[in-house]
Specification:
mainly alpha, elongated
Length: about 110
């Protein structure tokens, strides 16, 4: 059974290569371009499938770390007086010249 499958694939490849030799230069260029694009798309799909689990695991770990960081930051940023939570951010003036301004897009501000 396996020999028949390999023989069929070999015959198909030989037929395609023979057909490529019979067509003109413009059609050969288009065929080669199509074959290159199909090969790179197949390779990209195979690599994505191969790395899917590891990339998903890395994303899950990053999300867990961000959640843990937010929980720790929220726990230390609020003070409770009775049944009222008072965040430290509301205590200082927003116009305080000594207040340090942080860029939220800066990756160093994640910690």
């Amino acid at each position: 059974m396996a020999e028949k499958i390999i023989a069929g694939i070999t015959i198909a490849v030989c037929a395609v290569l023979l057909l490529r030799l019979c067509v003109g230069a413009r059609m050969r260029f288009r065929f080669d371009s199509f074959a290159r694009n199909a090969g790179s798309a197949t390779r990209r799909t195979a690599l994505n499938l191969w790395h899917w689990r590891s990339s998903r695991r890395v994303a899950q770990q990053a999300a867990d770390a961000a959640i843990l960081h937010a929980q720790r930051k929220a726990a230390s940023a609020f003070e409770r007086e009775g049944n009222v939570y008072k965040p430290d951010a509301f205590r200082g003036s927003k116009l305080d010249p000594n207040r340090e301004l942080k860029d939220p897009r800066d990756p160093r501000n994640l910690h």
